[in-house]
Design brief:
There is one protein chain. The protein is built from twelve helices and nine strands. By secondary structure, the chain is α/β, with parallel strands linked by helices. Strands 1-2-4-5-6-7-8-9 form an eight-stranded mixed β-barrel. Helix 1 packs across helix 2 and helix 3 packs parallel to helix 5. The longest helix has 23 residues. The N and C termini lie far apart (about 60 Å). The structure holds ligand C2E and magnesium ion (MG) (3 copies). This is Response regulator receiver modulated diguanylate cyclase/phosphodiesterase with PAS/PAC sensor(S). It comes from Rhodopirellula europaea 6C. Keywords: Phosphoprotein.
Length: about 280
C-alpha cells in the first residue's frame, strides 16, 4: 500500500472501492442461499390505464430481505446475480412467483390480471429460456396473454438479429413484450421497426425532467410519435406528480406508473388496488 495515496499518479483503488468490492463478494455468496432461505420477495406496482383510470396490471419488482443489511435493492444485487450466473435461477423463481400471483388474483377477481416481469440480458439469452417460460405458464395455468416481459433497450440492440428471432418465439407463445427504460439506450430505428414489440416504456429520467425545458417535453412527444408509427403503446414510468400526469395525458400517453399512484407494494396491498379508479 502507498503511504500517501495522493503521491500516486492516479488512484488504483481506495478504501471505498475496497469496501464496495468486499460487500459485493459477500453479497454474491449470500445470494446463493437467498432462495432456499426464502429471503427474496416480489412487490407489485400498479400500472394505470389512462383512458379510463383503471388498474391495467402490475409490475413485479424483486426485493432481497437480507438478514443483516435489510432490504437490498435489485439495482445492487441483479448485476451481481448476472455476473455469477444466479440470475437464471432467480429469474425462474420470479417468473413462477409472478405467474402464480396473477392466477391467484384472477381466481379472486374473476378476470385476467396482467403481470409484467423484468428479465435481464443474461437470462433472456440463456439456452432454454423460451422453454422455461412455456413450462412456467403450463405449470401455473396462466394464459400467455396475461404475461408481459420487460426487456431493457440496451439488451435489444446488443445482438439485434438473434433478439428479433427470440422475441418472435415469445410472441408466438402469446406473450406481450415491452422495452424498458426506453430512451436511455441507443436504439437503431431500422432494427426497432423490425422488433416484434407491444409496449414502449419511457424511462423515468424523461418524466422527471419534462418541465425543465420545452425541449425535454418534446422528447416525450417524439417518443410518443415514434411509438405511434411503430404501432406500440407507451407507458410512462416514474410519475410522481399530478402535473406530470396531466401533461402525459395531454401528450396522449397510454399508461402511467409511479409513486403518484402507488409505490411497489406487497401482494395483499396490491389486491386492494385492483378495482381502484385512479383518475
Ligand atoms: P425498472 O424495471 O425500470 O423498474 C422501475 C424502478 O423505478 C423500480 O425500482 C421502481 O420501484 C421505481 N419506481 C417506480 N415508480 C417510481 C417513481 O415514481 N419514482 C421513482 N423515483 N422511482 C420509481 P426497483 O424496484 O428498485 O427496481 C430497479 C430495477 O431493478 C428495475 O428497473 C429492474 O431493471 C430491476 N429489477 C427489479 N426486479 C427485477 C427482477 O425481478 N428481475 C430482473 N432481472 N430485474 C429486476
Ligand atoms: Mg421494468
Ligand atoms: Mg424502467
Ligand atoms: Mg430501470
Amino acid at each position: 500500500f502507498a503511504k500517501n495515496q495522493s503521491e500516486l499518479p492516479y488512484a488504483i483503488f481506495n478504501n471505498d472501492m475496497l469496501a464496495e468490492n468486499m460487500l459485493r463478494l459477500e453479497l454474491g455468496s449470500q445470494l446463493r442461499h437467498s432462495l432456499e432461505r426464502d429471503e427474496l420477495t416480489l412487490l407489485y406496482q400498479p400500472m394505470v390505464q389512462m383512458c379510463d383510470g383503471t388498474t391495467a396490471g402490475f409490475e413485479a419488482l424483486l426485493r432481497w430481505e437480507h438478514p443483516e443489511h435489510g432490504t437490498v435493492s435489485p439495482n445492487t444485487f441483479i448485476p451481481i446475480a448476472e455476473s455469477n450466473g444466479l440470475i437464471i435461477e432467480i429469474g425462474k423463481w420470479v417468473l413462477r412467483k409472478a405467474c402464480q400471483q396473477a392466477m391467484r388474483w384472477q381466481a379472486e377477481f374473476g378476470r385476467p390480471i396482467m403481470i409484467s416481469v423484468n428479465v435481464s440480458v443474461r437470462q433472456l439469452s440463456s439456452t432454454g429460456f423460451v422453454e422455461a417460460v412455456t413450462e412456467t405458464l403450463e405449470a401455473t395455468k396462466l394464459q400467455p396473454e396475461c404475461l408481459k416481459l420487460e426487456v431493457t433497450e440496451s439488451f435489444l440492440m446488443q445482438d439485434p438479429e438473434s433478439t428479433i428471432e427470440l422475441l418472435h418465439q415469445l410472441r408466438r407463445i402469446g406473450l406481450t413484450i415491452g422495452i424498458d427504460d426506453f430512451g436511455t439506450g441507443y436504439s437503431s430505428l431500422s432494427y426497432l421497426h423490425r422488433m416484434p414489440l407491444d409496449i414502449l416504456k419511457v424511462d423515468r429520467s424523461f418524466v422527471e425532467s419534462m418541465f425543465d425545458s420545452e425541449k425535454n417535453a418534446s422528447l416525450i412527444r417524439s417518443i410518443l410519435a415514434l411509438a405511434k408509427s411503430l404501432e406500440l403503446n407507451v407507458v410512462a414510468e416514474g410519475v410522481e406528480t399530478l402535473a406530470q400526469l396531466q401533461r402525459l395525458q395531454d401528450l396522449g400517453c397510454h399508461f402511467v406508473q409511479g409513486f403518484y399512484f402507488s409505490q411497489p407494494v406487497k401482494p395483499e396491498c396490491a389486491s386492494e388496488l385492483i378495482d381502484h379508479r385512479w383518475l
